[in-house]
Amino acid sequence: MKGDVPASMQAPFFYSSANIAQVHLAVEIPSAALKFEKVKGKEHASLNILGIAYKPDNSIFPRAFSDTVTLIFDGKKEVEDFQKEFYRYENQFDIAPGNYVLKVVFSSGNASFGKLEIPLLIDAYHGNEFSMSGNSP
Asked: Band of the pLDDT at 125, cuts 50, 70, 90?
């Protein structure tokens, strides 16, 4: 099932040690897709995000993450200003060399959600040379 919130994702990485890559995930989400509700006089929104790296056989690599981002604004004006731009979510995680598909889903508590996926190829690295990814969609 494909999500109904258009978004973009990049996952460049660098090697933090031999055969360990640190992925720097960046997801841009239309801010208007976030659902705000008034709580105790302020505007609140929660963004729930789940990311999983799958191997080619669809088994899950044991490095998944889930996160909840809470946004709080004083009033509607601040929400309107915020919703003029994209919201940029960032996360980092370590992963071993391998061929993966990185899948990320997100929702803000309403019926709409986003689903993104990109290939993530991490070559073996033994620490004797300099290397950095160019991994982007």
From this structure: confident
